[in-house]
Amino acid sequence: MTNQTLAQLSNSLVYAAIAVYALAMLSYSAEAARRTATGSAPPTERTRLVGAIGTSLTVLAFALTVGGTISRGFAAGRVPWGNMYEFVLVCSVAAGAAYLAFLTRLPVRAFGVWIVGLILLALGLAVTVLYTPAGALVPVLDSYWLVIHVAAAITGGGVFTVGAVATALFLVRTRLERRATADPSGTSDASGSPRRGYAASLPSASTLEQVAHAAHMFAFPIWTFAVIAGAIWAENSWGRYWGWDPKETWAFITWVLYAAHLHAQATAGWRGTRAAWFALAGYAAFLFNFFGVNLWITGLHSYAGV
Amino acid sequence: MTDLAPPQPEQQLNQRPSKPISWGWFRWTWRTLTSMRTAVILLVLLALAAIPGSLFPQRNVASDPAAVQQYAVRHPDLAPWLDRIGFFDVYASPWFAAIYVLLLVSMTGCVLPRSLRLWRAVRSAPPSAPRNLARLEDHQAWDTDRAPAEVLAAAARYLRRKRFRVVVTDSEVRAERGYLREVGNLTFHLSLLVLLVGIAVGKLVGFEGRVAIAEGGTFANDRSQYDVFTPSAWTDVDGLVPLSFRLDKFDVKYQVRGPNPGQPSQFSARITYQSGSGAQQRTTVRPNEPLDVDETKFFLTGNGYAPRVTVRDGRGKVVFTGPVLFLPLDANNSSEGVVKVPDAQPTQLAFEGLFLPTADVGPQGPYSMFPDALDPQLFLTAWTGDLGLEDGVPQSVFALDRDGLTQVQADGKPFAQALEVGETMTLPDGQGSLTFDGVSRFANFQIAYDPGKEITLTAAIAILIGLTTSLIIRRRRIWVRISPTQSSGFLVETAGHSLTRRLPPSAEISKLVTALGGPTSPAAPADPADKDPHT
Ligand code: HEM
């Protein structure tokens, strides 16, 4: 196959993935709606089936994004993470992989709808706003430390995404559990779990917290490694391993905020909800680095159009 | 950063004996400073303090060195205030240093006592079981008619094989493993200090510099030859590695076809160099492939055009000839620059304008269509008067100080001309001329010497290993207790307890139970995740 066909194949696979993810999101939404209606009562066979369809579609869509990424790499003749479009593509692969990996051991399907929704949003942005045709890299990016650095950053980001979704839902669920214990007048069952509403259909706060914690524990060393690999690459390109350029600065901010989160989780009185906000702040810093710094800050400093 | 060591409160108080020594206050401060809560707050402060440096242009930072001045020109009211609070030099500002020094002091004060505790824990036996094992995780109990000593011995053997530290008493087995987690945690935190040492060595002994050299130009590694030279406090400025080189040729390849035409695909600077009294050697410097001479590295970091011009003054005499560096402005290498001719008579001359490697004229005036020099043109205006080079104020080679200069006019308008290679611009009234001889390229080299970077790298690796260890390894305890029942048999109980925020491996206890002949595969909890050690 020629590069051109491969590039087209990649695009078709990504579009197909978007379509399948959209269907997956529909199934997951339907499942969530049914669960919301029944609250903490065990889901019916039917509800389970709808959710299982959502998961199967997610697996298929995930496989399509993997195919899209690989063919993109062959089309460009290099690793497929050299520009924003490809970063977002690979990041959605990483988030999908992290979600599916969690799914094999923890009851995280209840927030599949959010993961799939985020991936869909990311892929949509990628094909509309960020699309760049497959091509070679500018020379300074042509380094295998970059390959390692970006791969680690993207993997870390994908897993942080799962952590962030779990954390946000943890906050939602905790509020409900608190309100339920504060007001046991028939809206909640004996164990303090509320009976109805979306939050009632979520896994318990402690499960969500555990998922979030596992995701953060896994992603944080990867992120640390990404920052170190980035520094090694910078040393190879400019002779200074750390120059406080906005990208580096926001990677540092992300790292420090997640470190604050891990500490808060070990601080009496801060565990749980308060610590959760630090994790969300860390994720916000990660997102800002990904989108804000690329699209906005560098734009501020560039002379394009003079 | 070493001069920021906090004053010793005891000494201060000792100098004023009239006041009672307030140990309570000191202890309170120290305990507050080394608490986890303070660590969280300081970490968040560190993150917040780093933000302005990414939003405002910074001095001494890799990006465009002129950015701060440009910002000051655009925001004349705001800039002095931002400058006063250090927003243009965030990472060297006292408040930024205060945060990280406090953080490291707090960390050391927190982590060293922990090492002590760990040391004692490793040397002492795992503690005895809590009275009520049923309150712990994975509690299991069953009746047995085997002899207690036999059950306990079997448990101890099993747990030892699983690399637990084990203590056996008459009635229970106490086991603990995962001490390495604390070791990892300590390694990680203390390596942060080592990292800072590595950074400090670089900042105290190393240097950075930049130089732009046109094709054919030469450079000797001496401070005076740098465009920008940033030594550190203890840099041996007279002891730079002896090296000289000439830029023979600078090659750039641009993609002509494909999806990104005009994107560079290759840069290479061919140089001839000589280090010390050695022989001349040739090499090629490319992005990511610096020239490394005794740890001083020469990186290729940028490039641009240097149009070659010859200037004649009012007397017709050649007063300047050679390449002039023009500063690239955009992806297609539209470049601006200034030709300053202080030797011109009767008045000094200057030319200012644009260089367009592939010139075209659009509705907004001339612009460059492509970054390669396919159809180069030079658009110039001219100035006469006093260049102000003698007042000792350093000037940018890319900009003109217009005080004392008047623009050359023709027909009441500024005199301007577009030149192709070989063409000459002749100023009115015999004030002089400029000939566009040809196009050379220049290369930017960044030169760096950082003897601390190996320390930093070692610390970074230790950080990574320590962190991963502390996040993967789960420190936990297991107890097996045996007690007589009323019916002359014995009750065996096992339970575990995690010393970290993560659950112990879920199958660990049930495997132990199986090994001891207890009930096999008890009904697994419906939602194992709902068991949280800390709730
Ligand atoms: C200098 C910046 C610091 C960074 C980047 C940092 C980072 C981290 C990280 C990522 C962890 C998680 C590792 C784990 O959970 O095992 C951690 C744990 C820990 N940190 Fe720090 N830390 C810093 C400063 C401090 C300070 C100032 C203190 C004490 C006041 C401290 C005390 C601790 C303790 C006790 C733990 C273990 C928590 C646990 O048992 O889960 N650290 N630190």
Search tags:
heterodimer, A: about 300 residues, mainly alpha, 9 helices, about 0% strand, flat, disordered C terminus, B: about 525 residues, alpha+beta, TATA-Binding Protein, elongated, binds protoporphyrin IX containing FE
Describe this structure in words.
The complex is a heterodimer of chains A (306) and B (535). Helix content of chain A is 75%, strand content 0%. The longest helix of chain A is centred in the middle third of the chain and has 39 residues, at 144-182. By secondary structure, chain A is an all-alpha fold. Chain A has helices at residues 3-38, 45-76, 84-103, 112-128, 144-182, 198-201, 205-238, 246-265, 273-301. Chain A has one domain. Chain B has 535 residues and is of the alpha+beta class. In chain B, the strands form six sheets. In chain B, strands 4, 6, 10, 11, 12, 23 and 24 form a seven-stranded antiparallel sheet that branches. In chain B, strands 13, 14, 15, 18, 19 and 22 form a six-stranded antiparallel sheet that branches. In chain B, strands 1-26-25-3-2 form a five-stranded antiparallel sheet, covered by helices on one side. In chain B, α3 runs antiparallel to α7 (94-123), α7 (94-123) packs antiparallel against α9 and α9 (179-205) packs antiparallel against α10 (453-472). Chain B is elongated, with a radius of gyration of 36 Å. Chains A and B meet through α7, α8 and α9 of A and α3, α4, β8, β11 and β24 of B. Protoporphyrin IX containing FE (HEM) sits between chains B (34, 36, 38-39, 103-104, 106-107, 110-111, 185, 189, 192, 467, 470-471, 501) and A (259, 262-263, 266).
